[in-house]
């Protein structure tokens, strides 16, 4: 007897359930698609939506600030609000004595060792670059006594030496590293019309605001302002978060989102080699190029990105620092700021100084991070050395035919100083000092260019403008200058041409939350909106973690550090029409109804004492609060708090506090 088995999918009830599930999935997909611009955290797969979101935000801001200009905040570098965090550390001293030094292409044992040690035998191994994440040591070469080892395959070597000290019968040993310049670099001849284009030196410090440099590098600041002939840009404003947001625009003229997606998180095989870096353009016209950056384990182009397959510049320190630092492990040791007997910042200055003794046209970008990245107070250790570095270049006449930039990528980001309102503004106003060639052969228009540059000191400027200025000075074809839709000005303007004082943040491509020109005023605790805005933020992050409520506990408001209201330009709000036929003056009697108000909040939530900053938009008529996840910053470390969701939901890392840690 056969038994008829009823298939589950033939049941009318089950078919109805399947139909409902399909409908819900379609509705969810549509709602997700519609919310992409509000959820740019999903940019791993929806990068184009993030671009559209930013463009839309800039267009919205442009409608409010177009042509209104920028009132640069007048910040006292020595205000108690920020100086309370200053600390004085002992000057960096490196123990021991290096046996070998390289100068240009020649490496040899130093005189002090030769005078105290006999029977010296040194073994040299070139540190050979393969790609940004791979290098090798070349075959060993033995050199005796005071004989010279010539750099040929690489700019850097690992060295092991043995010898007998005059006061001992035992062998002495030394192992170390040295940097110079190999002779084998092939350089194209410069075209005849390039004789009067300048050399370029960009010398940068990580996490260095203009005010931070004035506070912690006082001797360098005084030397620059009294003895050099350039301009300190008061209105230099960042265009995004972190070092790449500064260096990509300076070196390519584009933002990260406008370049190929080469993040490690993507599955593509693309690397940074395909990007239009200035190094490549200059090499084609005969320039010798150098890119010197320390701390390779958090490298600008390697920490989040896939790096380069071929070194971007003729002279490149990445393989050297990977080997010398044991891929960053050195930074957890006692002498983390040293390379042998030399402070690392001093090595960076030394190699830069040597670079400008090489022949031909030169372009050098040096970027120091080790004494600023984790504790900005450490930069003071380099103050006197930086003065001597600048003084040496000036006395040698290097600046006569060299365009000089001294810069920071942004101000302090995670230090306590950022907890203050002034620190928040300083983060957005990094150091940027520009000096044109000082020599008489700088060209007939040099005097005018210097006056124009000085006139732009108080104008709003950005990293995009630095790139445009480099193209201008080097007589390279200007890049296609994108503009925010509706703007009358291109996003990038050369600092060697007058920048309109009515240029606004949106016209310069600066999103509102990065713009230091905005008038933010503290909201009183007596105002109801003070408490409502903070609670709206806490409700928002709890909504984000709601789908994982079985793992993530709800957060509660512990304290409010501050709430600030963005105040629109009063004259913008009250302008009604031109008072005269020519439009020279305006009539300011209008009453404008405010549709929405932006607030910035800083709160601490429980459990875990998580500290957050966020932009909260209040739509007045609807009385609703809107928060975009891109506008939320977690200020303190979250550590292991989100470990229960980190693997499956990494976008919740800064919001989730796992239940397992409650006890």
From TrEMBL:
InterPro entries: Alkaline_phosphatase_core_sf, DUF229
Gene Ontology CC, one term: extracellular space
Transmembrane region(s): 16-32
SUPFAM superfamilies for this protein: Alkaline phosphatase-like
Keywords: Membrane, Transmembrane, Transmembrane helix
Keyword Ion transport attributed: no
Name of the protein described by the UniProt record: Uncharacterized protein LOC113505498
């Amino acid at each position: 007897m056969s038994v008829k088995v009823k298939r589950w999918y033939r049941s009318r009830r089950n078919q109805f359930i399947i139909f409902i599930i399909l409908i819900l999935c379609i509705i969810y997909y549509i709602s997700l698609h519609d919310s992409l611009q509000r959820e740019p955290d999903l940019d791993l797969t929806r990068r184009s939506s993030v671009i559209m979101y930013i463009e839309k935000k800039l267009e919205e801001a442009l409608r409010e600030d177009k042509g209104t200009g920028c009132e640069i905040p007048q910040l006292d570098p020595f205000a108690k609000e920020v100086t309370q965090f200053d600390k004085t550390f002992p000057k960096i001293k490196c123990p021991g004595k290096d046996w070998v030094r390289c100068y240009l292409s020649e490496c040899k044992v130093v005189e002090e060792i030769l005078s105290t040690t006999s029977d010296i035998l040194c073994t040299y191994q070139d540190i050979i670059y393969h790609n940004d994440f791979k290098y090798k040591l070349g075959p060993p070469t033995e050199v005796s006594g005071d004989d010279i080892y010539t750099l040929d395959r690489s700019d850097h070597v690992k060295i092991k030496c043995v010898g007998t000290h005059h006061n001992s019968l035992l062998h002495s040993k030394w192992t170390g590293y040295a940097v110079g310049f190999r002779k084998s670099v092939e350089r194209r001849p410069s075209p005849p019309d390039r004789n009067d284009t300048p050399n370029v030196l960009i010398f940068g410090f990580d996490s260095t605001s203009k005010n931070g440099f004035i506070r912690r590098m006082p001797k360098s600041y005084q030397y620059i302002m009294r003895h050099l002939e350039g301009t300190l840009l008061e209105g230099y404003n960042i265009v995004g978060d972190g070092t790449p947001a500064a260096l990509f625009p300076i070196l390519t003229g584009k933002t990260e989102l406008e370049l190929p997606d080469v993040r490690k998180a993507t599955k593509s095989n693309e690397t940074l080699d395909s990007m239009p870096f200035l190094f490549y353009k200059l090499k084609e016209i005969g320039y010798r190029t150098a890119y010197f950056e320390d701390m390779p384990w958090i490298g600008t182009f390697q920490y989040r990105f896939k790096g380069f397959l071929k070194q971007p510049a003729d002279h490149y320190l990445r393989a050297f620092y990977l080997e010398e630092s044991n891929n960053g492990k050195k930074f957890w040791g006692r002498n983390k700021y040293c390379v042998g007997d030399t402070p690392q910042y001093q090595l960076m200055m030394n190699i830069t100084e040597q670079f400008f003794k090489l022949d031909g046209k030169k372009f050098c970008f040096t970027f120091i991070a080790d004494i600023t990245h984790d504790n900005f107070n450490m930069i003071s250790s380099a103050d006197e050395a930086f003065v001597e570095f600048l003084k040496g270049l000036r006395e040698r006449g290097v600046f006569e035919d060299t365009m000089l930039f001294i810069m920071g990528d942004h101000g302090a980001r995670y230090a306590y100083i950022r907890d203050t309102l002034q620190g928040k503004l300083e983060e957005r106003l990094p150091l940027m000092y520009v000096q044109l060639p000082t020599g008489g052969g700088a060209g007939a228009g040099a005097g005018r260019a210097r006056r124009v540059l000085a006139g732009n000191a108080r104008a709003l400027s950005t990293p995009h403008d630095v790139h445009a200025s480099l193209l201008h000075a080097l007589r390279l074809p200007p890049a296609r200058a994108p503009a925010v839709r509706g703007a009358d000005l291109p996003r990038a303007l050369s600092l060697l041409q007058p920048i309109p004082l009515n240029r606004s943040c949106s016209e310069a491509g600066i999103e509102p939350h990065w713009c230091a020109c905005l008038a933010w005023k503290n909201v009183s605790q007596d105002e109801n909106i003070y408490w409502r805005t903070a609670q709206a933020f806490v409700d928002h992050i709890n909504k984000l973690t709601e789908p994982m409520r079985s793992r993530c506990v709800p957060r509660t408001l512990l304290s409010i550090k501050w709430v600030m209201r963005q105040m629109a330009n009063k004259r913008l709000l009250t302008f009604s029409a031109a008072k005269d036929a020519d439009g020279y003056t305006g009539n300011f009697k209008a009453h404008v109804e405010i549709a929405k108000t932006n607030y910035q909040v800083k709160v601490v939530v429980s459990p875990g004492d998580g500290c957050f900053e966020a932009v909260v938009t209040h739509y007045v008529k609807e009385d609703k609060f809107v928060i975009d996840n891109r506008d939320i910053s977690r200020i303190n470390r979250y550590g292991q708090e989100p470990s229960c969701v980190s693997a499956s939901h990494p976008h919740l890392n800064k919001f989730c506090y796992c239940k397992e840690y409650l006890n």
